[in-house]
Amino acid sequence: MANTIIASSQQTRFHIANSTTTTSSSSSKELDVPGVCISIANTGKGPEREILSDTHLKLSAVGEKLIPGIPTGLRIVLLQQTYLIPEEESEKESSSVWGTSESEVSVLEFVISSDRERTEALKRQKLLQQALDNIHDPTAAVMTMRNLKLKDDLRELEEARKTANLRSGSRGLAARKELKVIEKRVAKKQEGLEIVDSQTLAEETSEVITMLADIDALLEEMSSSTAESRAKLILRGLGFKSKPTSSPSMSQSISSLSGGWRMRAHLAAQDLPPNTTVLFVSHDRTFTDTVAEEILVLRDLTLERFPGNLSSYEATRSERQRYLVKMQDAQSRQRAHMQDTVAGNIRAAKATGDDKKLRQAASRQKKLDERMGYEVGMRGGRFKAE
User: What burial letters (b/e) apply to 76-97, b meaning 16+ CB within 10 Å?
Assistant: First the structure.
C-alpha cells in the first residue's frame, strides 16, 4: 500500500509571521515556520515513522508547499536525482515541454521550455494574435481574453481554497470570507462568459489590444529572443557540451541522462534570478560542494543548519568533536585533581577530629559534584550527566 506523508506545523494556529493577508498574494520571501512535524504513515502496516519533530523550519525556500504556513507566492525550486513527468501537466499543457514524451525532449529544449512565465506569455501572445486576426469571428479576441482571465481567476480560487482549509481561528474565518467573495466573482464571470453585445465588444477588443501590448512588453523585458543563447550559456556552465557527439550533450534527450546530470538540467531549467534559494538533494559530492552555500542535516528528528558546503560541515564537525574530546579530557583531569584534594581534606579532618573542616570538605564535595556533573553537547549546550 502507498505511504502517506503527514505534515503539520504551529503556523496554522499560533504563528503567522510570513503573511499579512488572508489570500495567496503574500509578498513574503522568507520561510519561517515553527513547530514542524513530519511523519510517514504506511497504510495498514504498523505505526507512523516520525521524520521531523517540533522543528523550526527557517529557510528562504521547500518542496511542494505541503507544510501549512509556506507563503503561496514564494517561488520554490526542489532539485533531486529522480524525476517523473507530471501526468496532470501533460494533460493540461499540451504545448509545454511536459506535453511531449520526455524521450523526445532534448536538454536544450527542456531548459528553454521550462521557463514557465515566458512559455505562458508566448502562448497567450499567440492565442490573442490569432484571435485578432480571425476575420470570420469578430468575438474571437474578446472570448479568448475572457477565457484567459477566467483561467487566472480559477487559479486564484484554488489558492484561496487551500488557504481557507489550512487556517483556523480568526484568520481562518477571514480567509473563508474572502473565499466566498472570490467564488461569487468567478461564478458571475462564468455566467456572463458567452454574453457579448456591441458595446462590450468594442470596449473589450480595445482591452485585448492593451493586453497584447503588455505581453509584448513583458517578453521584451525578459529578453525572450535570447532564451536559447542564455540556456546554452547556463548549460555549458554546468558541464554540458554543445557538440552532439560529446557527452553529456545539450542535444541528447533528458531521459538518457543519469540522475546527477538530469538534476543539472533541471537546475539549468530554473534560469534563476539573483537571491533565489535552491533546495536540492544530490549524491554527487563534487557538485554539492561546488553549488551548496548552506546545508541541512537531519539528525535526532530535527534539522541542523550549517552555513557552508558538505566538506566544510564535516571539517567543522570533526574539529568540534576533537575540541570536545580535549575539553572532556581536561575536565576529567581537573575533576580528578579536585576530588583528590577534597578526599585528602576529608581524611585529614577525620584524623584530627575537626568536625568544622569535615563539614567544609563535605560541602566542597557536594559543590564539586554539582559543578562538574554537567557536560557540553555538540551544539555547545550544557546538560547534566546521569
Answer: beebebebeeeeeebeebeebb
Q: Cα torsion at 230, 234, 240, 241 (round to 10°)?
A: 40
List Cα–Cα distances, 227 to 121, 224, 376, in angstroms.
Answer: 13, 5, 54
Distance, in Å, from the CA atom of 375 to the CA atom of 272, rounded to the nearest integer, reads 45
Decide the pairing of beta strands 295-299 and 302-306.
antiparallel
In order of 26, 49, 303, the CA distances from 34 in angstroms are 18, 20, 12
What's the pLDDT tens digit per position in 263-283? 888 888 876 555 556 777 777
Instruction: Give the model's pLDDT for residue 25.
Output: 41
Q: Which three cell numbers stand for residue 341?
A: 584534594
Domain boundaries, the chain: 1-77+274-308, 310-384
Q: How many CB atoms lie within 10 A of CB 112?
A: 20
The answer to whether 360 and 366 have CB atoms below 8 angstroms apart is no
d(CA 50, CA 44): 16
The separation between the first and the last C-alpha atoms of the chain, rounded to the nearest angstrom, is 43
Rounded to two decimals, the pTM is 0.54
Mean pLDDT of the chain: 76
Tell me the CB-side half-sphere exposure of residue 185, using CA atoms within 13 A. 16
Please tell me the predicted confidence (pLDDT) of residue 358.
Answer: 78
Residue 264: what residue type? R
CA-to-CA distance for 65 and 377, rounded, in angstroms? 33
- 169 and 212 Cβ atoms separated by less than 8 Å: no
Cell of 139: 468575438
